[in-house]
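Session log. Operator J.P. requested a structure for one protein chain; no other inputs attached. Running the standard single-chain path with token output.
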Amino acid sequence: VAGCSPSVQVRTDSDPGVNFNQYKTYDFFSQMGIEGDDYSNLLGQHFRAAISSQMNSRGFTQSDAPQLQVNVSIGAEEKVRVNTYQEPYVHGGYYGGYGRYGYGSPWGYHGGATRTTVRQYTEANVYIDLVDTREHKMVWQGVATFTVTDKMQQQLRETVYSTVDKVFQAFPVAAPSG
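Structure written below.
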């Protein structure tokens, strides 16, 4: 939901008392937050596949008795951005408006009009939560924040994979390089 966006902001938080090397297995909540009635079935499938790819690359194995459970949810908010700026009004030619030999600036400056632009947009947050199954507590959360674009919505699979990739760059267990 963020791959085609020019600016995706990622933040993560983890339980400082947790050693992530103790975990070897994971699975998903039976119904993740993004798999409710308001979402496409494909959205959940894309997130499950993208997260599985990231977890598997880090040595985790999907299991029916997982040590970690994964949940994904999305929050979106309609926003309005208002920009107001002064438009300069420049007139005159090479000699300006002050006579034949151009006393002062060659271009005359007069205060211009004020222009205001209004833009509506949707800001979204994708939350990826990892919960310790035995302790029933969240041990890690990754959040991607971005502005939703038409291109992102048209390329949903690529957007999901890109978003998950960006969030997992900050995961406590690194993927092997190379």
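Operator note: The chain has a mean pLDDT of 81.
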